[in-house]
């Protein structure tokens, strides 16, 4: 029972297709729409959508569809982690650097051919870049689909003699020179974009080169956290006990005076206001500088120094030492 119904449906479908094709035989434009997009495509065209692009309704089914053909392809964007000295991020500056990339061959202008006369229309697709493939669905019923031409790779052109400079690759290796401008107080991880400086290709518009700027971590040196700076200062036992007055050379060379009266405990952190990083929104304003003190003990002391320390800290034992 079901087999008879299926056969009847197939015969009915074939009949409708034949009738539809006969009605289209004198209308090449409609026939082309029917061959490419079937019954629904023809209905959409006849329903008035031909006033604009008759294929816009299929754009969602073809990855952007026919409207996407007019859009310019963008090449890949490269992202590079770029380390600079913290001093450059403190005071600002310019850093020259180089990037290896690919650019269009200046001899063939990206065609890959030795001359314009070596570029010919592809005989496999007639220059369209696609081939129409017919596939049988049922006996006597076929469906048509478009595939990229394998003779020209979808470009519609073939090259008979390759460019001797790029060997037909259309692009060549190139080392480009750039300058990175660092503003005072630039945030960690700030991204600087060089628009259109990515790899070139005749198939796309060059993408961007992005540098993600970070300060280089130097062991035992200056450290940064947002607008704050950190420094570890080493002092002796005498300075830890009696106090001190010393100078610290800042990242840009100016002097910061460090003064302590009395005892400084190991690990004590002193805050120096206004000596941190410049603020990105106003480089005339600064964060704070935090100084952590590290006390170094001597490896050995002389008998005279030992006696004086004993008199100072253990007066009750000083007389026994003399005896």
TrEMBL record:
<keyword id="KW-0677">Repeat</keyword>
<feature type="zinc finger region" description="CR-type">
    <location>
        <begin position="92"/>
        <end position="175"/>
    </location>
</feature>
<dbReference type="InterPro" id="IPR044713">
    <property type="entry name" value="DNJA1/2-like"/>
</dbReference>
<keyword id="KW-0479">Metal-binding</keyword>
<feature type="domain" description="CR-type">
    <location>
        <begin position="92"/>
        <end position="175"/>
    </location>
</feature>
<dbReference type="Pfam" id="PF01556">
    <property type="entry name" value="DnaJ_C"/>
</dbReference>
<keyword id="KW-0143">Chaperone</keyword>
<protein>
    <recommendedName>
        <fullName>CR-type domain-containing protein</fullName>
    </recommendedName>
</protein>
<dbReference type="GO" id="GO:0030544">
    <property type="term" value="F:Hsp70 protein binding"/>
</dbReference>
<keyword id="KW-0862">Zinc</keyword>
<dbReference type="Pfam" id="PF00684">
    <property type="entry name" value="DnaJ_CXXCXGXG"/>
</dbReference>
<dbReference type="InterPro" id="IPR036410">
    <property type="entry name" value="HSP_DnaJ_Cys-rich_dom_sf"/>
</dbReference>
<dbReference type="GO" id="GO:0006457">
    <property type="term" value="P:protein folding"/>
</dbReference>
<dbReference type="GO" id="GO:0051082">
    <property type="term" value="F:unfolded protein binding"/>
</dbReference>
<dbReference type="InterPro" id="IPR008971">
    <property type="entry name" value="HSP40/DnaJ_pept-bd"/>
</dbReference>
<keyword id="KW-0863">Zinc-finger</keyword>
<dbReference type="InterPro" id="IPR001305">
    <property type="entry name" value="HSP_DnaJ_Cys-rich_dom"/>
</dbReference>
<dbReference type="GO" id="GO:0008270">
    <property type="term" value="F:zinc ion binding"/>
</dbReference>
<dbReference type="InterPro" id="IPR002939">
    <property type="entry name" value="DnaJ_C"/>
</dbReference>
């Amino acid at each position: 029972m079901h087999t008879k119904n299926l056969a009847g449906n197939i015969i009915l479908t074939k009949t409708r297709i034949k009738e539809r094709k006969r009605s289209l035989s004198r209308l090449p434009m409609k026939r082309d729409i029917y061959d490419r997009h079937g019954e629904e495509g023809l209905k959409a065209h006849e329903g008035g959508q031909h006033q604009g692009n008759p294929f816009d309704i299929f754009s969602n089914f073809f990855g952007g569809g026919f409207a996407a053909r007019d859009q310019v392809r963008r090449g890949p964007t490269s992202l590079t982690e770029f380390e600079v000295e913290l001093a450059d991020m403190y005071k600002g500056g310019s850093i020259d650097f180089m990037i290896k990339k690919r650019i269009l061959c200046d001899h063939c202008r990206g065609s890959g051919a030795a001359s314009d006369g070596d570029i010919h229309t592809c005989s496999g697709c007639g220059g369209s870049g696609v081939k129409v493939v017919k596939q049988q669905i049922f006996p006597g019923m076929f469906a048509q689909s478009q595939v990229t031409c394998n003779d020209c790779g979808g470009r519609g052109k073939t090259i008979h003699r390759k460019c001797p400079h790029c060997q037909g690759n259309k692009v060549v290796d190139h080392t480009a020179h750039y300058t990175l401008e660092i503003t005072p107080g630039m945030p960690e991880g700030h991204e600087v974009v060089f628009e259109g400086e990515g790899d070139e290709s005749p198939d796309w518009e060059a993408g961007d080169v992005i540098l993600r700027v970070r300060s280089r971590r130097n062991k035992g040196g200056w450290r940064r956290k947002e607008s704050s700076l950190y420094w570890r200062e080493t002092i002796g036992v005498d300075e830890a006990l009696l106090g001190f007055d010393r100078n610290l050379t800042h990242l840009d060379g100016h002097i910061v005076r460090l003064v302590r009266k009395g005892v400084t405990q190991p690990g004590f952190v002193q805050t120096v206001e206004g000596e941190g990083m410049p603020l990105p929104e106003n480089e005339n304003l600064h964060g704070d500088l935090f100084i952590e003190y590290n006390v170094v003990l001597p490896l050995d002391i002389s008998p005279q120094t030992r006696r004086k320390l004993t008199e100072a800290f253990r007066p009750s034992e000083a007389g026994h030492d003399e005896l």
